[in-house]
Design goal:
Blueprint (H helix, E strand, L loop, with lengths): L1 H33 L4 H31 L3 H36 L11 H20 L6 H26 L12 H6 L6 H33 L4 H7 L1 H5 L1 H12 L3 H26 L6 H23 L6 H22 L1
Helix pairs in contact: 1-2, 1-7, 1-10, 2-3, 2-5, 2-7, 2-11, 3-8, 3-10, 3-11, 3-12, 3-13, 4-5, 4-11, 4-12, 5-11, 10-11, 12-13
C-alpha cells in the first residue's frame, strides 16, 4: 500500500513539474522578447541556468546535509558524485531522446514537420565549450593533490563566466525569439502592459522556486524507492536522481519543439550541458574525493559517444540536426541501464 502511495505522489509531482515548466518557458520567452535577446541567450543561459538549479542543489544537499545531520558523509559523497556526473549523462542521452521523439510525435500530429531548424553556430559553440570543460573536470580524477583540484574547480567557474560573456557579447541585440504567447500572469490577472516587466520577473522567480521545491520532493520519492530496492547510492544518483532534476530541461525542450522553436529547444540542452560541466562539477571536485568507479566511468564514456554522434550528424547534414540521431542517443541510456543491472545482478 505504501509503495502505491509513493507511486501516486511521484505521478502527481511529475504533472506539477510539467505545468511549472510551462510557466517557466513562457516567462523566459517573454523576457527574451522584452529585452531583444537571442535564442542562444534565452535558451542557453537563462533557461539553462534556471532549470539546472535543482540538480546543482542536489550535490550540495547530499554532502553538507549529511555532515550536519550526522549521517554517513561517504554516502553523501557518493550521491553527490553520481548527481554531478549523472546530469550531463542524462542531458546527452535522455534529454536529446525526448527532443527527438517530440519532433517525431509533433510531425505525426501535423503540428510541424520533421525537419529541424536549430542554429548550428549555437550548437557547435556550446558543444566545444562543453567538451573542453567536461574533459578538464574528468581529468581531475587522475590528479592526487586536493589543492590542485580546487584550483581547477575555480578555473571551471571562470570558464563558465567566459562562456556567458561570449554568448552575451556575440548574441546581444540579435532578437531571434519568435513572438511568444502572452505572459500567463498577465493573462490570469489581467495586468496592465506597464507592469509586464515586473510580472515577467515575478513569474520567473516563482516558477524557479516551485521548480526547486518540486524537484527536491521528486528526488526524495525516487530515493525512497531506490532504498527499498537496495540500489547502491552512486548508481541510484546516476540513474534515478538526475531523471527528476533533468525533467525541466526535457519538458522545456519538448514544449519548444511543439512550438517549432528548435533553436530554443536545443540551446536549452546544450547550454545546460555547459553549465553542468562547469558549476556542479566544480562543486563535486571540491566537496568529494572525485574518484570514479566502473559505473561512473562508463557514464562518462557514453557521454562522449553520444555527443560525437550528434556532432558528426551536424557536420554531415551541413549544420542541421536530424531527429533520428537524437532518438538514437536514448539507446546509450539503455546500454548504461543494462550495464548497471549486470553489475548489480
Amino acid at each position: 500500500m505504501i509503495y502505491l502511495l509513493h507511486s501516486v505522489i511521484i505521478v502527481l509531482l511529475l504533472f506539477f513539474i510539467i505545468y511549472d515548466c510551462i510557466l517557466f518557458t513562457n516567462s523566459v520567452e517573454n523576457l527574451g522578447k522584452e529585452y531583444k535577446l537571442s535564442d542562444g541567450v534565452v535558451g542557453g543561459i537563462l533557461a539553462a541556468i534556471g532549470t539546472a538549479l535543482p540538480e546543482t542543489v542536489v550535490p550540495l544537499v547530499a554532502v553538507i546535509g549529511a555532515f550536519f545531520t550526522g549521517e554517513s558523509v561517504s554516502i553523501g559523497e557518493e550521491v553527490a558524485l553520481g548527481a554531478v556526473l549523472g546530469s550531463p549523462f542524462l542531458l546527452s542521452t535522455v534529454a536529446f531522446f525526448v527532443t527527438g521523439i517530440s519532433v517525431l510525435i509533433c510531425s505525426k500530429l501535423k503540428k510541424r514537420d520533421c525537419k529541424m531548424c536549430e542554429n548550428p553556430l549555437i550548437l557547435l559553440r556550446d558543444l566545444k565549450f562543453f567538451v573542453i570543460s567536461y574533459t578538464v573536470a574528468i581529468s581531475c580524477a587522475f590528479i592526487p593533490h586536493k589543492f590542485i583540484k580546487c584550483v581547477i574547480a575555480i578555473l571551471l567557474i571562470v570558464f563558465y563566466l567566459i562562456y556567458v560573456h561570449r554568448t552575451l557579447k556575440k548574441d546581444f541585440g540579435c532578437c531571434c525569439v519568435e513572438e511568444p504567447e502572452e505572459l500567463i500572469l498577465l493573462k490570469l490577472f489581467g495586468g496592465k502592459e506597464r507592469f509586464k516587466k515586473f510580472l515577467i520577473i515575478l513569474q520567473i522567480i516563482a516558477s524557479l522556486i516551485l521548480l526547486i521545491v518540486l524537484a527536491h520532493f521528486f528526488v526524495k520519492q525516487i530515493l525512497f524507492v531506490a532504498s527499498a530496492l537496495n540500489i547502491p547510492p552512486v548508481v541510484m544518483s546516476l540513474l534515478l536522481a538526475p531523471i527528476a532534476t533533468e525533467l525541466p530541461e526535457c519538458f522545456n525542450s519538448a514544449i519548444w519543439i511543439g512550438q517549432s522553436k528548435d533553436s530554443l529547444s536545443i540551446s536549452n540542452i546544450t547550454g545546460a550541458l555547459v553549465f553542468q560541466s562547469c558549476i556542479p562539477t566544480a562543486i563535486g571536485i571540491m566537496l568529494t574525493p572525485w574518484v570514479f568507479n566502473k559505473a561512473t566511468a562508463m557514464s562518462v564514456v557514453l557521454v562522449y559517444i553520444s555527443l560525437i554522434c550528434v556532432y558528426l550528424n551536424v557536420i554531415k547534414n551541413k549544420g542541421m540536426l536530424n531527429h533520428r540521431i537524437l532518438i538514437t542517443c536514448g539507446v546509450f541510456y539503455l546500454i548504461y541501464l543494462f550495464y548497471v543491472l549486470k553489475i548489480l545482478i
